[in-house]
Structures are given as C-alpha cells and as structure tokens.
Amino acid sequence: MAKRNIVVLEGDGIGPEIMHSGLIVLDAIAKKYEQDFNLESFPFGAKAFFDYGSCYPDAIKKAVMNADAVLKGPVGLDSAGRAKLQTQLLEKGMGTVEQATVLALRGDLGTSICYRPVYLPKELAFFSPLRPEIIGGGINILMMRELLGGIYFGEKTEGIGKDGKILDYSRDDCTYTRRQVDQFAHACFKEAKERGIKLTNIHKDNVKATGRFWKAIFNEVGKKNPDLKLEDCLVDSFATFLCTKPTSFNGVVALENMEGDILTDQAGGIIGSLGLMPSACVNSETGQAYYEPSHGSAPDIAGKGSANPYSMIGSVAFMLEKSFGLKKESQIVWKALSSVFAQGHMTRELVRKLTEEQEQTRAEDDMRRLYTAFHTLDPTITPERARGLILYSNRKYDEDLEKKVVSTKEFTDLVVKNILVE
After folding, report:
1. Is 127's pLDDT higher than 70?
2. Of 222, 239, 270, which one is at a domain's C-terminal end?
3. Rounded to two decimals, what is the model's pTM?
4. Residues belonging to the active site
C-alpha cells in the first residue's frame, strides 16, 4: 500500500483545534480501512510570520509542493493583531495577509477550482435564518469557484501612498484568459454530469466584458454537452434568489473568482454557519490540491472548545475522494458527520441567541399564524393568553436546543463513533 504524504498547515485562531479534530477522524479512517497517511505539520499564517518572519516560509513551500495533499486551517488574527501584522507585511513588501498566505498557496499549487458544498437537509432547516418553507425539501448546491483569474490576480495600482496619503485613484484589473475559463467550464460540466444534476452559470454579462466572455465560453461548452441542463443567471439576481428560493439552484453553480468569494459566504449564512462549509481547492491538470474550511480563524472563540469542526472534517472527506480516490471512505465520513446532527447534537454557533426584542418579534409572528388555530380549539382563549403560551413554548424550545450543544471534542468523538460502527 502506497504511503500518502499530507502536509498539515494548522493556521491561526481555532485552526489548531479544528485541525486536531480533522486528524483524529483521518486516523480513524486509516485504522479502520488500513490506509497509510504520513503527516508533516507546519505553522502557516500569523504564527509562521512571528516565528520565522514569513507567513509562508520557503521550507514550508517546498514541503507543500512535494506533498500528495495539503490540509490547511484558517489564518488571521483579531482586528488589532491583523492591523499590526498587515503593517509589518507591507513594510517588508509582502503584500496583504491574503496575498502572503492563501493567494500565494493557490498560485504555487495552481489550484484553479474550488468546490464548496452548500448542504442543508429539510430536517435541519432550523439552522437557517430563513423560514422553513423557503428551505423546502432541502438545499443541496455544489458551488464551484474559479480561483486563479479575475480581479484578485490582476494588476493593481494602490490608491494609498507609503506615507499613508490618499492618492488620486486606485485600480484593480479583472482579466480572464480563454484557457482559464474553458478549463473551469469543462470541470463544472464534468462535475454536474457525474452527479446527474443541472449546472447554473453565474455572470454579469450586462455590464462586464469578462462577464460576456465567461457566458459565451460556458454556452460553447454547453453545446458539446447537450444532455446536461445548463442555465444562467445574473450575479445580482442570483444573490437575491439565493435568499428567496435557494432550492431552485440545487445542482452545480459556477462562479468567477470574486463573485464566488462573496456568494459562497452568503450561502454559508443561509445554511446557518460557515462552519458547515468545507472546501476543496484543486489543480485539475496536476491533481495537486489543498483542503480547508471556508470560514475564518475566529480568534474570539479560540481555545474555548466550542468551535465547529464540521468544515475541517468535511475537508478531510473531500481530500480522501479527490486526492486519493477513496470514495467509499469519503462517503463514510460525510455520513458520520450528518449522523451527528441526526442524532440531535450541534455546536454552539448553530443555536442562535435571541435578544428580548427578537423573542417578542418571533412571538408576534407566531401569533399572526397560530391565533386562529388556538381560538378554534378554545373559543374562550384571549390573545394575551395565546401569546403567553407561544412565548412559553418558544423559550422551552430554545432551552431544549441548548441541551443539544456539544463541544469541539464531543462533536469529533461522535463522528469517530459513527465511523467505527458503520
């Protein structure tokens, strides 16, 4: 059996905690299915900068380039720490935090395609801030984002001088080559075909030249795949419909770089937490890839044991499938994750803390919908009595949810237990 070499970049904030969870799950898979994974861990991000003077030192870069896969945690500090780090990076000519870390990593590995699942079954509709009827039968979207083109990698003219003075203008160029878009489009069609689902192409062809270019290439590739349903949608319309009718996009959704960056985060909010959104970033030509949670480093909860490890564990599942071809093992991890929720457990951020005003608003909405039913069952009931019953019922519901909250460690242990009994 070939040994698979994995570089582990823990990152900052909650990164080490959730990475630990991911590696525990990986170890459970390795033992149960007799797989051999060799792990090599390195600091990455702020910790690496303060330890070695670089967020992404050459020694780490060399290990990354020689790895079979990379597992990466989130990077970044709180606002004060970030400002301090950003100043030092700019003084050294290293660019922004993102340019010195994740953008550099993407460029080295050539990971042009990002896969982010937006998944919320109807049974977990209460995770979402949207009404249950909007979630309907459940959200199941695979968002695919192009990672190496567009405005993030275009030429830039800074609008702030080194002395801090605001200059006359600033500029970010947005450029896509035909090869970039064509390669990405083919990957999106391939994924949709394998899954037997439709593909929706998101663009801004009514304003942007790159939007018209992007749409034309997708349509051209679509003609070569007549058996697959291709739809398209303006990016601003998509942002609206993602909130009002998200299930209409169930399938694969194709996004350019910046639009994908923004809209995948919006999707995380819709399903209740970015902690539910793992990702895979893949070079479709070489197979090199890194896997990471879609969320940030959450320094405010670091070390408290309350972080949701779902997205890190899901990233491990992605790695098993896309880097190592272990589809069965990958599905076992996904199933184990879903089973934790089905068994009635959840992490802290999935239980929303309501203010008194929010509780009152919820009760008023319930009254509008339910008072007629109350009055039908008991014609003597007063609005005040019905409202009191609703407030009591809602608070009892909230208390019951609180009892289902588990720690990072407990969630991880439950995933491993589910894997072992599968």
Report:
1. yes
2. 270
3. 0.93
4. 152, 204, 236, 261, 265
